[in-house]
Amino acid sequence: MGFPEFVVVIAAIMALNPLAMDMMLPALPNIGAAFKIPVANHLQLVLSTFLLGFGVGQVVMGPLSDRFGRRPVLLGGMTVYAIASVLAIAAPSFETLLLARALQGLGTSATRVIATSIVRDCYVGRRMASVMSLAMMVFIAVPVIAPSFGQAVLLLTQWRGIFVVLMLYGLLALAWSVLRLPETLPESERRSLALGDVLDAFKQTVTNRQTIGYALAAGGVIGSLFAYVFSAQQVFVGIYRLGHYFPLAFAAIAAGTAIAGFLNARLVGRLGMRVISHGALTLYTVVAAAMLLAESLHMLPLALFLVLSGLMMFAFGMMIANFTALAMEPQGHIAGTASSLYGSITTLVGIVIGVVMGQSFDGTLLPFATGFFLCTLASLAIVLVVEKGRLFRPHHRGA
What is the pLDDT of residue 141? Predict the structure, then answer.
């Protein structure tokens, strides 16, 4: 497999997760009407249960892939995803739909963990960060188009049609992986699934200052992003009255992350992961403070919200791949387990923050702006502790 195809197939596998998340956004009112859900905030469960399955599943996917190899775990997870999509298509009740969403999240936990592990198997240092950035650029482009794609599906059919599309994409990605993606973990490097060995790998992960620190910092920024996604439909349709134009506004904002992924891939080799991610975290903090101030003064019109949200997404895109690479760098000998635990920590921390912020939605942006600012301050404080008060230090690895 050539380098371009490698990046694209990794991105395509990772894209299963955001596609299943963001295609659902325009359909939430339709799902609420179909199942007679009286409280709009309860519809956020369609998103949060998916992420819960995603977060919990990552705990086991890494150890399994370190024992049995990357391919069987990846293909098994993608098969679960396809079956869950069928269950969602036929769901007779809201509870069954939530079960299907949790299973979809469980299936995509394998795709995210294994994709990250495969990259770590093949690359290190700045090259690893560059590959992750290129993959993330394609991966992040999905949220740009996913809501519009979901809206287009709704124009042609009902909300269940979205799950048909998700199932077909999952089967296509599964077939591509079966035919083209090689096993990247040699037999000689596989680890035992004995409880003591797994717990030892977990201990190595959570006791490494760099790994756990950047995992918690990433969880903070991801939590604010989850809160934004959970309440996006309510904000754009309920507050700003965009109606069917909501996917266009969402896409315009999400484009900032794709641009950031491209720039990061070009710059990280020269500047290093710390310089770029710390600069992006500083920008994230400034944006959060500006949004909270503007909302507190009742001076947050749509145009300003779009600009600030676009900057938020751009800063996130410049941070997240580098945070992941920095966290994973010391864990090459246990990449699968470390990747799974890193993913679980960031996702579960993000879910807790996102659900609290999302369920606090009261028809204004004040709960989101307040939570966004507090989460960002917490992430900045954690990075300062990890780096012992010194930000923007050049990375010590040149290759």
Answer: 67
